[in-house]
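pls design
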């Protein structure tokens, strides 16, 4: 195991059960049969069978197979669609995976020879979410052997992966999940890859308004000289989901008896401009990764769409403001009003003539006199031409 002999057995003509303890980490197991020249062993056979691994053992040479190699999505006006991408193991080996979705070419570029960059600029307070951190190394004479990221008191890491990319030496996470204020990754050998990536999940307190995570990246050059690069990852609070495509279920496990699926939600109301390109990156079993391109486009006039009224409010629940999307089937008067739970009108948002089309407006959660409304349940009603009418219920939180 890992180049050292852990068990040795002489010639015998019967099956023997052998148990080999495995410590946490990456291991390579190799079985070797050698003929004893002092014995009449010509034609003898060395057999190895019925390998049993404990639950949780993962193989680096497992192959994860997605249902599609690329996704093309066309959305109608205001459409919100849930998508599912099935996954299975090609040879039945157990696979644990975690997926990250990012806009193509959206990762920031490093400003120093060594830096850490997050795949997003905002966080959702009071929630548990996945973050992808990328290490950029533009100086190939530097070997990165340790990374430290500090967490504030009101942030907890619920799961942490390794810094890796296929074919590169990984930096393994060290520490216990859930009780750390510092996340650390280490590999004595070091790695001089131009980039490595790591995914981890953070539980963030609902009252946090700004997230700052200082980091240290420790390196050695070819002459053994050590150097530490320092910086910080800063995220601002984002109470609204602003991406037109985002993940709903992004991690799981597959095996010879079990398949799994990554689920996503595409929202045309957030598709600005009328198309977007994403990369779905799936990390599994250590150093393995596969990328699935996803392209989203907008169909502004699908067949039959304007035969009925369409009305959507997002986000729902909302706080300081919310967006209202609505359709007008033909040129004519459009009336968009907001009512409270008692049926009292609190705001006339739209009252004018509009041409056929799909429109959006932002309600600042104030009444017609400019006063903020209180927390509670509200109703938005649309009256359009051709006697079309639609009503939607939503919640305001203060």
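designed seq:
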């Amino acid at each position: 195991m890992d180049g050292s002999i852990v068990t040795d057995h002489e010639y015998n003509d019967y099956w023997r059960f052998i148990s080999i303890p495995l410590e946490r980490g990456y291991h390579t197991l190799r079985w070797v049969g050698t003929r004893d020249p002092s014995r009449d062993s010509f034609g003898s056979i060395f057999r190895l069978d019925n390998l049993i691994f404990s639950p949780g053992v993962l193989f680096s040479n497992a192959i994860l197979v997605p249902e599609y190699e690329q996704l093309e999505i066309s959305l109608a006006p205001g459409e919100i669609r849930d998508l599912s991408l099935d996954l299975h193991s090609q040879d039945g080996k157990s696979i644990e995976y975690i997926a990250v979705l990012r806009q193509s070419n959206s990762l920031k570029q490093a400003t120093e020879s060594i830096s850490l960059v997050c795949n997003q600029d905002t966080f959702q307070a009071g929630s548990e979410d996945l973050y992808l951190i990328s290490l950029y190394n533009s100086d190939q004479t530097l070997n990165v052997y340790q990374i430290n990221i500090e967490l504030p008191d009101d942030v907890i890491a619920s799961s942490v992966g390794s810094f890796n990319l296929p074919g590169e030496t990984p930096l393994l996470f060290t520490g216990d999940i859930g009780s750390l204020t510092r996340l650390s990754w280490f590999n004595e050998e070091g790695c001089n890859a131009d980039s490595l990536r790591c995914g981890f999940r953070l539980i963030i307190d609902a009252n946090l308004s700004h997230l700052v995570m200082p980091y240290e990246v420790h390196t050695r050059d070819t002459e053994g000289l050590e150097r530490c690069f320092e910086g910080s990852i800063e995220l601002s609070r984002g109470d609204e989901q602003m991406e037109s495509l985002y993940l709903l279920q992004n991690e799981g496990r597959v095996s010879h008896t079990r398949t799994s699926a990554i689920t996503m939600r595409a929202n045309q109301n957030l598709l600005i401009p009328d198309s977007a390109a994403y990369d779905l990156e799936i990390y599994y079993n250590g150093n393995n990764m596969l990328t699935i391109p996803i392209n989203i486009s907008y169909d502004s006039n699908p067949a039959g769409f304007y035969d009925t009224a369409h009305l959507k409010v997002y986000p729902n629940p909302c706080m300081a403001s919310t967006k209202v999307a609505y359709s007008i089937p033909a040129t004519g008067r459009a009336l968009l009003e907001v009512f409270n739970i008692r049926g009292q009108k609190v705001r006339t948002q739209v009252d004018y003539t509009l041409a056929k089309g799909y429109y959006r407006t932002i309600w600042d959660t104030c009444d017609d006199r400019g006063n903020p409304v209180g927390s509670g349940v509200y109703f938005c009603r649309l009256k359009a031409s051709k006697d079309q009418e639609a009503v939607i219920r939503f919640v305001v939180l203060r």
